[in-house]
Amino acid sequence: MKISSIDCNGVHSNLYIYENTKLQLYLIALPELNWSLEIDTTLNEDDINEELVIHLFTLLDESTATKIATDIVKSILED
């Protein structure tokens, strides 16, 4: 599991990313927002980003959702 800190609406929040290789999915959680999502690990970077923005946009404005989604994708892709 990866745990990192991201800026979430001006508040540094913990981001949790669990990769389940058997089921080929990521479980992503932002407790500060009471938000989590399962997403397929076979998606490419742009598709992951788009999925994240769509789901975050239900809670946040578009620019904030886009920024957080970009930060999450960076965290997923870093080794």
How would you sum up this structure in a few lines?
This is YueH family protein. The protein has helices spanning 45-56, 62-77, and strands at 2-8, 11-20, 25-30, 35-40.
Q: Your description of this structure?
A:
This is YueH family protein. Pfam families: YueH. It comes from Staphylococcus equorum. The chain has 79 residues and is of the alpha+beta class. 35% of the residues lie in helices and 37% in strands. The protein has a four-stranded antiparallel sheet with strand order 1-2-3-4, covered by helices on one side. Strand 1 (2-8) and strand 2 (11-20) form a beta hairpin. Helix 1 crosses helix 2. It is globular. The relative contact order is 0.19.
Work out the radius of gyration: 12 Å
Principal-axes shape call: globular
Order of helices and strands: EEEEHH
> What share of residues are in beta strands?
35-45%
| Biggest sheet, spatial arrangement of strands | 1-2-3-4
Q: Please mark out the parts with pLDDT under 50 across 5 or more consecutive residues, or reply none.
A: none
Q: Termini separation (Å)?
A: 12 Å
The major β-sheet equals: 4 strands, antiparallel
Q: Tell me the structural class.
A: alpha+beta
The number of strands is 4
The number of distinct helices, counting runs of at least 4 residues, comes to 2
Mean pLDDT: 95
- Give the helix proportion (percent range): 25-40%
InterPro entries: Uncharacterised_YueH
Organism: Staphylococcus equorum
Protein name: YueH family protein
